[in-house]
Amino acid sequence: MKYFLWLLRIILGVLFIFSGVVKANDPMGLVYKMNEFFEVLHMSFMIPYSFFFSVTMIAFEIVCGVAVIVGYAFRLFSILLLLLNIFFTFLTGYALYSGKIKECGCFGACIPLSPEATFYKDVVLTIMSFIVYVYRGRISSIFGKHTSTATFILSVVFAAGIQWWALEHLPFVDCIGYKPGNNIWEKMQPGPGFKPAVYESVFIYEKNGEKKEFDMNNYPWQDSTWKFVDRKDKLVKEAEGEPEIHDFVLNDSNNADQTKAILTAKGYTLFWIVREPDKAHMDNLDKLRNLVSKAAQLNVPFYALSSSNYEEANAFLFKHGIKLPPFSVDGTASKTAMRSNPGLMLIKDGVVVKKWSYRDYPSDMALNGDVLEMK
Predict the structure, then answer these.
(1) What residues does each domain of the chain span?
(2) Most buried one in 116, 174, 234, 256, CB count within 10 A?
(3) Can you spell out the DSSP letters for 145-212?
(4) What is the sign, positive or negative, of the torsion defined by CA atoms of 315, 321, 323, 328?
């Protein structure tokens, strides 16, 4: 039994550390996923707290994984581990059987899992954590008290530090469709075998206090004893060959779609992506203004992309003395393309070259032959 418990500890600990580190690479990704869950669960009042829940949960996964392997305060962490796995199993089960959430985001954008794989993974982990909880009295720390405490504190510092860096700068590893090396326009096109998702309408009626679902062929629209309650769309078949990038549409001041013209243009283009102007970090604006001036001298197109309307975006740019033409872009697309608010993106021939957070704007730029150097 001793070796079996050791095996479970290692598996649980390593998986929790790995899961936490992968999500710590992109904490905002988990924030957006939590918002999706809250909306589906009709708990929109929790959305303002998503950021706190996200960073706390990520840190807890890492810390809990370390505590399980080391054996630090094991009676406490064995209970917390079991409760967390039960909670995850509920969420992934809901995602699977409701069909309302496509991915749970358990391993972030870098390692997408199907709802089925995620749910069964959590079921197995819950069983394993229950066994560890039952036999928690047989498990002790592998280090002395002071060493175990020091290891635990270091795990807390690491969990906080890695998230701080990713939030202040950008993810260490970019796993989304707008990562360097990707051609945005090509990623917006459906695959050769594209087939759209198939949905069917489900009608919910109530009779004598009992609710029942009907499809288009048998719903009792002529039977007055049934009362209509709700309608929902049920996914019948997943789409095939869907484009990786959705809704990245660039509209100018006249609301004209300039997406293709901009993304297929030859040469370099710069985007300053300001998701929400009223919440934007205004650090290093002197560097940005210098880049705007240099881009104009070098004839490099430079656009401000905002998820607000044209009037608000234009007023924001004028207020801060940033002479860029404003373009509107969908809010989901902007927060996917750039995790920091705001951030800078450089593309060449439609291919993403590099991205910078508001902390890391280059100070200058220069053309060296046909290569644009950002310094």
Answers:
(1) 2-168, 198-237, 259-374
(2) 174
(3) HHHHHHHHHHHHHHHHHHHHHHHHS--SS--STTSTT-BHHHHTSPPTT-B--EEEEEEEEEETTEEE
(4) negative
Number of H-type helices and E-type strands within the chain:
11, 10
Fill in the DSSP letter of residue 240: B
pLDDT one digit per residue (tens) for the chain, 375 residues: 788 888 999 999 999 999 999 999 999 999 998 898 888 888 889 999 999 999 999 999 999 999 999 999 988 999 999 998 998 898 888 877 776 776 766 776 788 778 788 888 899 999 999 999 998 888 888 888 899 999 999 999 999 999 999 999 999 999 989 999 999 999 999 888 777 777 788 888 888 888 888 887 888 877 878 888 888 777 667 777 788 898 899 999 899 999 999 999 999 999 999 999 999 999 999 999 999 999 999 999 999 999 998 889 999 999 999 999 999 999 999 999 999 999 999 999 999 999 999 999 999 999 998 899 998
Q: Does domain 259-374 have CATH number 3.30.1490.20?
A: no
- What residues contact residue 293 under an 8 Å CB cut-off, 6+ apart? none
d(CA 66, CA 73): 11
Residue 43 neighbours by CB under 8 Å, 6+ apart: none
